[in-house]
Automatic annotation (TrEMBL):
It holds the Pfam family GST_N_3. GO terms for molecular function: glutathione transferase activity. This is Glutathione S-transferase. Residues 83-215 form the GST C-terminal domain. Residues 1-78 form the GST N-terminal domain. Homodimer. The keyword Ligase does not apply. It comes from the Bacteria. The keyword Transferase applies. The lineage of its organism: Bacteria, Pseudomonadati, Pseudomonadota, Alphaproteobacteria, Rhodobacterales. GO terms for biological process: glutathione metabolic process. Keywords: Transferase. Gene3D superfamilies: 1.20.1050.10, Glutaredoxin.
């Protein structure tokens, strides 16, 4: 059985978990306190980051590379389109969420509110929290623009781009940092992807000291 070393609220780990679950690949989840720099974990990934996936006799790091490997090795169901142009758009949006959105929003909200406390790094920086709360509005508006023109973020079919975005939004929703009233379009998209069986494991996550809001696992929120 595959093993995934992860942190529950990490959007990068959640993206891999969604891919594994969608493809019905059984996987043992192992929580890894990567910030403690355990020597055994550093041997698995000298970069000291999660996720790390052990599968098919290999040990893999970097969520984007892991997801593309899973897509090539386990192509059913398809999460990447066939055409070069469409694949480019999926990769562009994955980069958007894992780079720009993460830097401007997730790191300012989830990392400040949760990770700092879990890691013993003190209290949230209020200026970062304010910046993240402001930046997410821009991203919600951009997603609305995309979804007004497409069925899913990258086109007419659900792709890894949707999983990348949903991984971030699910972590933010866990700490009630998404204003779902700003965009019914994005709310409907999230409700649609949240209702997939692949999402069940994520919705069952519990972070000690941080209970999720009542609506977190509600499919009709």
């Amino acid at each position: 059985m595959a093993k995934l070393y992860h942190v529950p609220l990490s959007p990068f780990c959640r993206k891999v978990r969604l891919s594994l679950a969608e493809k019905k690949i059984e996987c043992e989840l192992i929580e890894e306190r990567y910030w403690e720099k355990d020597p055994d974990f550093l041997r698995r990934n000298p970069a000291g980051k999660v996720p790390v996936l052990k599968i098919d006799g290999m040990t893999m790091a970097e969520s984007a590379a892991i997801c593309e490997y899973l897509e090539e090795r386990y192509p059913d169901p398809v999460l990447m389109p066939k055409s070069s142009e469409a694949r480019y758009e999926v990769r562009r949006l994955i980069s958007w969420f894992d780079d720009k959105f993460h830097s401007e929003v997730t790191s300012k909200l989830v990392y400040e509110r949760v990770n700092k406390k879990v890691m013993g790094l003190g209290f949230p920086d209020s200026s970062n929290v304010k910046a993240g709360a402001k930046a997410i509005k821009y991203h919600l508006d951009y997603m609305t623009w995309l979804l007004d023109r497409r069925r899913w973020l990258a086109g007419d079919a659900m792709t890894l781009a949707d999983f990348a975005a949903a991984a971030h939004f699910s972590a933010l929703d866990y700490i009630s940092d998404v204003d779902w009233t700003r965009s019914e379009t994005v709310k409907d998209w999230y409700a649609k992807i949240k209702s997939r069986p692949a999402f069940r494991g994520i919705l069952a996550d519990q972070v000690p000291g941080f209970p999720p809001p009542a609506h977190y696992a509600d499919l009709d929120f």
